[in-house]
Amino acid sequence: MKVATAAYPIDWHDSWQSYADKVTRWVHDAAENGAQMLVFPEYGAMELASLAGAEQAGDLAGSIRAVSDRVAEADDLHRQLAQDTQTYILSASAPVPDGDEIVNRARFFSPAGAMDWQDKQIMTRFEREDWGIAGGGPLKIFDTAFGKVGILICYDSEFPLLARALVDAGCEAILVPSATEALSGYSRVRIGAMARALECQCVTVMASNVGDAPWCEAVDLNVGRGGVFCPPDKGFDPTGVLAEGVMNQPRWTYAEIDFDQIAEVRKDGVVLNLTHWEEQLPRVSAVELSPF
């Protein structure tokens, strides 16, 4: 499977057509380059807030209302694009109401026009303390034509038990849409994505926002690039990096994911991290204090 992962700029839009034209260009560009699965970043949908005007877009609570008011239209657009291009599309995540809570939700579209979603599980300090976003649920596995795919949104990729739950349920590749405002944040998510690829013997696909959007407090600063990571084992790149884009440059990054090779390295790799995971458990519960 050829995957395309985005380094995506947050743009101001004066009209719905401006937004729709942008997303359509991005999707068609990836599809024309042979991509079969497209990954947009976390909170990339915040650019929809511009359609409500500067005052509402610049207010944290107001920006949630502005974006959630447009999510249904954005979903219709992505659904149609997935069908037109016969691709899987993970659209940019958005804050949306879920009962009495606001959750961070990434919607996933199939070539047949089906849609499901993954909610972020664990909130960053900004999300929980300033923005009032709550953890959603549950973790899901998406059974695509190529293999089983899971999604860990940004900070979620830094928690190994979440990834382990996905791979225990059959996951072979994990999509990691992210939004990071500094190199340190980007590095944390990148390191998390690489670590999950190593310990789960899978491929992880990281997307980022890039550039400044001073009109939107939630995503005013954005640092990152697209990246596709793998276990540094036989049949894969020895660096653990299948592909990476140029830092802070808007573009797609492409890589081929071989699901058969994932199965092979899990079965007969130089190391067997996935199989040997359980050997940690009795050892971490029996730590002794040395009198040294």
TrEMBL record:
<protein>
    <submittedName>
        <fullName>Amidohydrolase</fullName>
    </submittedName>
</protein>
<dbReference type="InterPro" id="IPR036526">
    <property type="entry name" value="C-N_Hydrolase_sf"/>
</dbReference>
<feature type="domain" description="CN hydrolase">
    <location>
        <begin position="1"/>
        <end position="259"/>
    </location>
</feature>
<dbReference type="Pfam" id="PF00795">
    <property type="entry name" value="CN_hydrolase"/>
</dbReference>
<dbReference type="GO" id="GO:0016787">
    <property type="term" value="F:hydrolase activity"/>
</dbReference>
<keyword id="KW-0378">Hydrolase</keyword>
<dbReference type="InterPro" id="IPR003010">
    <property type="entry name" value="C-N_Hydrolase"/>
</dbReference>
